[in-house]
């Protein structure tokens, strides 16, 4: 995984919106994705190219249509490497606090 490409792709709010739209309805065409975006078709296409280079989406041609699909694997890898380790400590503290509070309430 190329972390720099993933983080660069995620840094833009327009690209995050595109990922959200694909999460809601995977397999959309460029035209469908453009409908709710406040940008020109060419800009949406450029954002999709960046997402594809970061491996956050993949495309499949069906006849004249090109469908876009979200690829959650790079996001999971970012979570595993950068987020999960911070979550574990916090969850452990909450668990210990819960145990302590439950012990005092008995």
UniProtKB/TrEMBL annotation:
Question: Where do the TM regions start and end?
Answer: none
Boundaries of each HTH arsR-type domain copy?
Answer: 1-90
Q: Where is the signal peptide?
A: none
A Pfam family of the record is HTH_20
**PANTHER family according to UniProt:** TRANSCRIPTIONAL REGULATORY PROTEIN
Identification of the protein by name:
ArsR/SmtB family transcription factor
Q: Which organism is it from?
A: Marinibaculum pumilum
Q: What is the lineage of its organism?
A: Bacteria, Pseudomonadati, Pseudomonadota, Alphaproteobacteria, Rhodospirillales
């Amino acid at each position: 995984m190329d972390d720099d490409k993933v983080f660069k792709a995620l840094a833009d709010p327009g690209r995050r919106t595109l990922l959200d739209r694909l999460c809601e309805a995977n397999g959309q065409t460029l035209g469908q994705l453009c409908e709710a975006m406040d940008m020109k078709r060419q800009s949406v296409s450029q954002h999709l190219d960046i997402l594809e280079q970061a491996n956050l989406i993949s495309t499949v041609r069906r006849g004249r249509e090109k469908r876009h699909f979200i690829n959650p694997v790079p996001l999971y890898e970012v979570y595993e490497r950068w987020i999960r380790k911070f979550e574990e400590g916090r969850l452990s503290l909450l668990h210990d606090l819960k145990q302590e509070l439950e012990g005092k309430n008995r």
